[in-house]
Amino acid sequence: MNLTIATTVFAVGKYVRFLQDFLETAEKHFMVDFNVRYYVFTDRPDDVPSVNLSQGRHLSVIQVPGSNRWQEISARRMEIIQTAIERQISREADYIFCLDVDSKFHARWGAESLGRLVAVIHPWFYQATRDLFTYERRPASTAYIPMDEGDYYYAGAVFGGSVEDVYTLTKVCRNQLEEDARNSIEAAWQEESHLNRYLLYNKPSKLLSPEYQWDDKKTKTNEVKVIRFSSVIKNYAEIRPN
Ligand code: 5GW
Ligand code: MN
């Protein structure tokens, strides 16, 4: 079908150091034999490593402002993706995945992951009952989810789908993040809370298992057969601004 898959990844400040492993392992495992376009959002374009990309795969660097306060950028991530979809990605890709950069691929991530709206069950919550989900519980936030609602607790580090559906997701989450900011309220897990709220009322058409967003801090369990993508263990003192 000659599809193109966009991948957005933020590498602001010291997080540029994760790009090499992220990109090298993506070349081995992520959407092999598809057209892939990486969109790297960074304040340090000169520090983006040059990784050999296979045929049909491209990388664009998009400059974003740096900040000592990550919260300032974090709150704008949905807006930045929304704008990039409008300006560039909608013309260049069919599907999109928005991923955390502090991660590596370990095994095949292929066409089985495609769908109109795609989310992953958070690796720390797939066995938890609903009352333990860390949704935003204050009605004053636009990310609010009442105790008797919610299907799954979704990971904020991976979401995707058709470019059109993800565009709507980023637009809605952006507006809700901005409304919360105007009301001086920050959801418990920021974007992850807003993503969970969005996906409660806009059900994903495809739900991926925690194989697609494992956490290296968690020992592998029997239910998980193949770890495909995982968050690496990071030294917070070393990589985070203040
Ligand atoms: C995040 C938290 C505190 C301070 C800084 C950051 C940070 C995140 C940053 O300085 N630069 C950056 O590019 N990020 C992006 O946000 C990365 O793509 C990162 O993977 C993503 C989410 O932040 P993480 O991975 O630190 O959050 P957790 O909850 O996955 O640990
Ligand atoms: Mn992460």
UniProtKB/TrEMBL annotation:
It is a single-pass type II membrane protein. Mn(2+) binds at D100, D102. Belongs to the glycosyltransferase 6 family. It comes from Salmo salar (Atlantic salmon). It is found in: Membrane. This is Globoside alpha-1,3-N-acetylgalactosaminyltransferase 1-like. Its cofactor is Mn(2+). Keywords: Glycosyltransferase, Manganese, Metal-binding, Transferase. The lineage of its organism: Eukaryota, Metazoa, Chordata, Craniata, Vertebrata. SUPFAM superfamilies: Nucleotide-diphospho-sugar transferases. One of its GO terms (cellular component) is Golgi apparatus. It comes from the Eukaryota. The active site is at E192. An alpha-L-fucosyl-(1->2)-beta-D-galactosyl derivative binds at H122, T134, E192, D215. Binds 1 Mn(2+) ion per subunit. One of its GO terms (molecular function) is hexosyltransferase activity.
